[in-house]
């Protein structure tokens, strides 16, 4: 059994205090050749992305996605409001009529409207928290990059990586934590922000028929997404099924969740929690899609794809045979590192700025955060 992560120390090491002389700059592409990809894995930017994957996974563990923003941190609600506004703009920019399979041209109109909204609203959030406005363009660029490609009319894992970076930038700049009460962002806060993002993006994808970036098709985990599976499996890992098969005597007599005898026993644990195999049951998917990111992503697949699940989603079908969510989660993290952060076609589009995700060796993190030495320009 692995030792729990000391999130406070980890966060401080990877996202140190913002220096007063920090020099923000608009993110630029720095990965042009295979040698750049190798260097990327030694950078402060890469270390911060790894931190964020671990950070969100730890905080959302055993947590259900909230049904509303009630009780969530004000900064979280402000960021979520930006995402909800972008979803609202979709209603104001209907798709252009006419036969076409992918890439409705109205997406370009929506994208540029969304870009303007982001720059305005992110600037307002930054100003309200007394953070230097110099940070606006660097931070906003990651959210803009998370909308998809206005050139290729597609969306994929590289774009949701930019949203993870945007979330991390908000965290680093102190836009999410509540300084007055000393309250830090919680698992519920994280799930609310990411749920609003995925809801908005799915609306964009279906409205404007965006093509899957990279055309992974059935050979990828999902045509468009990877992060909701990491978050969703993290939510379920370690929940009551840990007692099963490991220490029968330790099973609690009373479950914290009601059992669901109407569901197929092989798809539900005796504690009323879905197993990975539950992706085959629409009844279970509908029960859990609103509070669990994994099942929310599976529900979207059933919405946009037809035919047997094992044919259009063979990788997810194979994963459904894994017994425990902790193994699913660890496997998905390894896959993310290999297929997203380790693939040139994906990360070549990621931008590196002056402060949030600098192109500098992690050993020089302090200097990199200030925009100083440690740069390895090519």
UniProtKB/TrEMBL annotation:
<keyword id="KW-0539">Nucleus</keyword>
<dbReference type="Pfam" id="PF03095">
    <property type="entry name" value="PTPA"/>
</dbReference>
<keyword id="KW-0963">Cytoplasm</keyword>
<dbReference type="InterPro" id="IPR004327">
    <property type="entry name" value="Phstyr_phstse_ac"/>
</dbReference>
<comment type="function">
    <text>PPIases accelerate the folding of proteins. It catalyzes the cis-trans isomerization of proline imidic peptide bonds in oligopeptides.</text>
</comment>
<comment type="similarity">
    <text>Belongs to the PTPA-type PPIase family.</text>
</comment>
<feature type="compositionally biased region" description="Low complexity">
    <location>
        <begin position="250"/>
        <end position="266"/>
    </location>
</feature>
<keyword id="KW-0697">Rotamase</keyword>
<feature type="region of interest" description="Disordered">
    <location>
        <begin position="247"/>
        <end position="266"/>
    </location>
</feature>
<dbReference type="InterPro" id="IPR043170">
    <property type="entry name" value="PTPA_C_lid"/>
</dbReference>
<protein>
    <recommendedName>
        <fullName>Serine/threonine-protein phosphatase 2A activator</fullName>
        <ecNumber>5.2.1.8</ecNumber>
    </recommendedName>
</protein>
<dbReference type="InterPro" id="IPR037218">
    <property type="entry name" value="PTPA_sf"/>
</dbReference>
<keyword id="KW-0413">Isomerase</keyword>
